[in-house]
Amino acid sequence: MPLTENDLRAWVRAFAERVSEQRQYLTKLDSAIGDGDHGQNLNRGLAHAVEQISGSEGDANEDASAVFRTVAMALISKTGGASGPLYGTFFMDAGKAAKGYEELDVDAVAAMFRAGLEGVQRRGKAEPNDKTMVDALLPAVKTLEAAAEAGTPLAEAVTQAADAAQAGMEATTPLEARKGRASYLGERSKGHQDPGATSTYYLVAAASEAWKDVA
Ligand code: ADP
Ligand code: MG
What we know:
The chain is mostly helical. Helix content is 67%, strand content 0%.
């Protein structure tokens, strides 16, 4: 069964819940190699996004791109930091990609994540191994694309993508940051897990949690 717009809302809510639960941890990670605001920033932005998408359930005019545009605008206006506009772009571009699909199946989800990743890279110019969100997002995208190619059911594909994002997040620890605030530390950024890659793992894990019963 393909996803509905309410499944997309459930994803955003699950992401917001995870970030809220883990905001102290995200802040701790960002204190080590940044300015310690990542948990609070994202928690504030996502709380606003959840507020903005609540109440439109059942509104036939709210297709996937409209839901994600609302999320994107909320994140851009309330998150702040480097990550606010980057997550905003992720959702904006993922929503645009959804427009090309009649059904939100595994192919559409892979295309949405690919478009979101491309948006993040277009805006932030980060390459793989720069120790950013991209290091968790890219493996998730590749995994989704391989799963779509193999005809893997959606819930299973997204669970695999979350595992790939987790591995990508963990692999940021030894890297030297080449983008964002952490890059000011040079060599001293080594040995710390990237906060943005960590929240991006939550983004993908939230999809697997929210969509676990989607066939
Ligand atoms: P700020 O660094 O402005 O305080 P946040 O603390 O909210 O912003 O977010 C920091 C995270 O943003 C980093 O851990 C990193 O993953 C991500 N980030 C920073 N710059 C970039 C970039 N150019 N491309 C992708 N991700 C980035
Ligand atoms: Mg910060």
